[in-house]
Amino acid sequence: FLRLLEAQLQDQRREHEEEVETLKSQVEAMKEEMERQQQAFLQTLQLSPEVQVEFGLQQEITRLTNENLDLKELLEKLEKNEKKLKKQLKIYMKKVQDFEASQAMVQTERRRHELNRQVAVQRKEKDFQGMLEYYKEDEPLLVRNLIT
Questions:
Q1: Contact present, 17 and 9 (Cβ < 8 Å)
Q2: CA within 20 to 30 Å of 120's CA: 31, 97, 128, 133, which one?
Q3: Is 130 left (phi over 0), alpha (psi -120 to 50) or beta?
């Protein structure tokens, strides 16, 4: 039991160390990016106001262009997903129609089977010969059944 706990503790320690290393590398990358931006900002401040405005506009154009490309990529993904979902919908609709058709066939077969059973029962009843006993109040029903 102690070995298992030691192994778990070592695994957790290793994961923690890896996470710390990852975070350190991210911090280092952010520091470098911040230094780069600070240098760009200082260089921008040394420029004339007209050039600063132009530089700001260029950065905004670059940012908007990148954002536009990201949005186009997202749009393409969504369109592909829409096409895929439409195809799946068509497939499922076909399956539903096939299922409904098969259910209709099953219902038809059941009706035929029931009619065959009724016919078989009627044939058995026709095999009787002789007199029939009935109550007076059942006479209209009996006459109707004989006619049909």
A1: no
A2: 133
A3: left
Q: Length of the chain in residues, anyone?
A: 148
Question: Per the domain annotation, does 137 fall within a domain?
Answer: no
Number of domains into which the chain is organized: 1
DSSP-derived letter for residue 135 is -
- Please give the residue range of the domain that contains residue 11: 6-45
- At residue 129, the 3 state secondary structure works out as coil
pTM of the model: 0.40
CA count, 13 A, side-chain hemisphere, 49: 0
Take residue 146 and report the two structure tokens written for it.
């004989």
**How many CB atoms neighbour CB 44 within 10 A?**
13
Q: Are 39 and 31 in contact (CB under 8 A)?
A: no
Is 37 contained in some domain? yes
Round to whole Å and give the CA distance between 59 and 51. Answer: 12
**84-136 pLDDT, tens per residue?**
999 999 999 999 999 888 888 888 888 877 776 665 555 555 555 566 777 88
Q: How many CA atoms lie within 13 A of 85 on its CB side?
A: 6
